């Protein structure tokens, strides 16, 4: 190892040691759920991104998730998602609802998966995910990606993007889904069949998924305005 590399490694190690000993990570330590799904851009349904959600439940009606492109130590932070109950969604202003998507199909299809440690057997995973999926089935998400990882993987460039969940089978990026299943040794098809046995019939609330129903995309575009002072 070159001297400069050795020095860099030493400083990195010392930095992490000092951080663990002296700093508080309470918000991070409150994360207790890891979900993996696939998002599509609200203005371009041909683009798909794998999304690892690390979630904290602030209340029964509000969850907040940080989103990474993988679950590796060097994973890139690409966005956030807020998840609300049906009760909260019903109370949102009409103009706000266009930013929110339902989770019904994402859950029913098996696209959304609870990720557990490799040593946990499949039967235990199936049991652990059932209460989570029953809850998420009737929730709504507002997802913003700040890093268009599929176009600029080196740096988080450009404006943020509104993301949406899948609503029907034909929307899904099967290649990305198969790659995800292979990595974690899971079967989206098997999860879909299992969830049929316990998920109730449900019709999402009006106002969600407007982008798909109207065939209109939603895109954030920077606008120059007068600075308020």
Write up this protein.
There is one protein chain. This protein is of the alpha+beta class and 229 residues long. The chain has one domain (30-209). Helix content is 31%, strand content 24%. The chain contains 8 helices and 8 strands; from the N terminus they run ααββββαβαβαββααα. A 6-stranded antiparallel beta barrel has the order 1-2-3-4-7-8. The longest helix is centred in the first third of the chain and has 20 residues, at 3-22. It is globular, with a radius of gyration of 19 Å. The termini are far apart. The model has no long low-confidence stretch (mean pLDDT 89).
Tell me the series of helices and strands, N- to C-terminal: HHEEEEHEHEHEEHHH
**What integer is the average pLDDT?**
89
State the helicity in percent bands: 25-40%
How much is the radius of gyration in Å?
19 Å
Number of helices: 8
Distance between the termini: 54 Å
Question: How many structural domains are formed by the residues?
Answer: 1
- Count of DSSP E strands? 8
Strand arrangement within the widest β-sheet reads 1-2-3-4-7-8
The parts where pLDDT drops under 50 for at least 5 residues are none
Strand content: 15-25%
Q: Briefly note the structural class of the backbone.
A: alpha+beta
Give the overall form. globular
Q: Major beta sheet, specifics? A: 6 strands, antiparallel, barrel
